[in-house]
Amino acid sequence: MTTTRTLAAATVMVTLLGSAAGAQTVAFLMPDQASTRYEEHDWPGFEAAMGELCADCTLIYQNGNADVALQQQQFNSVIAQGAKVIVLDPVDSAAAAAMVEIAHSQDVKVIAYDRPIPDTPADFYVSFDNEGIGYAIAQSLVEHLQAESVPDGAGVLQINGSPTDAAAGLIRDGIDRALDASPYKTLSEFDTPDWAPPRAQEWTAGQITRFGDDIEGIVAANDGTGGGAIAALKAAGTDPLPPVTGNDATIAALQLIIAGDQYNTISKPSEIVAAAAAEVAVQLLNGETPEATTTLYDTPSQLFVPAVVTQENIKAEIFDAGIQSAEEVCTGEYADACAELGIE
User: Where would I find the Periplasmic binding protein domain in this sequence (predicted)?
Assistant: First the structure.
């Protein structure tokens, strides 16, 4: 199998694997580059799994760069290029419904990936349990505040993901479920356009001015928005920092947890979902019916349950498990803090 890679306009990446005559084509369309996970984990994981399962398949990878119109163009393009299965992580979950209808009208299968497509059922949905993620990070924060004897009625901020992302809505539902059942109140809530960390940072800065020391914790829906919140807190001179949640276990977030600046994240190696998507893609290519473990939005689905990571278990969950190495994470200013946690 040979691989070539080019970087086209609007940071769209296209990769083709294999070029055998008559090879079946599978497209992998991701939503944005605000998170580094797609280039660092999702696509490499999918590419590797497909390489093992279908050596003669042609793969196309493109990133929509948070642009609905661009992703629509990419979707139409891969169909024109002969894609028989499209793995789609939509920029806009509502807009993706029309894409599914277009694909089905041309006998093309669609696997919803990470973010569901509520309005028109895809052929399959593969993801982590997003509502469970929201509940887990918020409940972990609640239990931490209680362990620290933060009084009932204290306030927290809630930073959600993109309002156009159905997965963000599920994460928000999980956060709401945990906070609503807790003794703490939500001071203010924000839906972060495009999951952009600078927008989360800007909003948090305004809330620090508004609420000051009344902010006892921040539930952020992913590591990018959590990192934005932490940057705002540091810029405001907040000391000590209130606990801030995250999700994705990015290297930057792991470093913040090790340093004591971020409270938790979610370990959900994207390669797990990417490999599952590859298996489903090959089954669909072969005319088989993939086995679902549940149904979401009338779509047969496979949802994985992730683990919450804090300083207490980061060594076991991340480093001992081989998800990241100390060489990658414990660099420069984080080396001493890693050593204190036994991460070497």
Answer: 26-288
Cα angle for residues 223, 229, 231 (degrees, 5° grid): 100
Give kind and range of the element (H or E) at residue 69: helix 68-80
Nearest to 29 by CA among 88, 112, 81: 88
User: In CATH, which superfamily holds the domain spanning 3-129+269-304?
Assistant: Response regulator (3.40.50.2300)
Collect all residues with Cβ–Cβ distance below 8 Å to 260 and sequence separation of at least 6: 311, 337
pTM: predicted TM-score of the whole model, two decimal places: 0.81
User: Which residue shows structure tokens 């769209």?
Assistant: 12
List pLDDT tens digits, range 248-304: 999 999 999 999 999 999 998 889 999 999 999 999 999 999 999 999 999 999 999
Class of domain 130-268+307-340: alpha beta
